[in-house]
Amino acid sequence: MKNLKTMLVLLAMPVILFLGSCTKENQVTPADQAISADDQLRAGELLVGTVSPGLYKITKFVDSGDDKTGTFSGYTFDFQADGDLIATDGNGNVFPGSYHLNSAGTTLTINISGNAALKNLDDDNWNVQKLTNMKIKIRKNGPDVVVFEKI
After folding, report:
1. pTM for this one?
2. Confidence check: pLDDT of 117 > 60
3. Residue 123 belongs to some domain of the structure
4. What's the CATH number where 143 sits?
């Protein structure tokens, strides 16, 4: 009889643990993975597999969780088909650099320098979040995000 009680307790324990682990809570998407306005396709915007050459501006720049978009006010970025990247600040200063999109289209490397603002973009392997004929959205692990939009 004692063995039967012990056996029932041992069998009941996994069932109780299993049922106790179930939850009725709704799963919430973390804020950094939530769909934002940057993720929505606009009229005429098409997903592409390469960077569309042309003149861009930064419409969003988040560094270590802080919105620093204003740092790039007046800047333009000329992404050229050959991988050259030419940044021009609001005073007309020109900063040459380069960019490279890996063959899978998942990592964008930017090499550019010249001032403190550009150093935040330089030499980082950015994860491509969205690549269209009008927009480049990239992010690093954590809260760092950059959105380039064609002018």
Report:
1. 0.74
2. yes
3. yes
4. 2.40.128.280
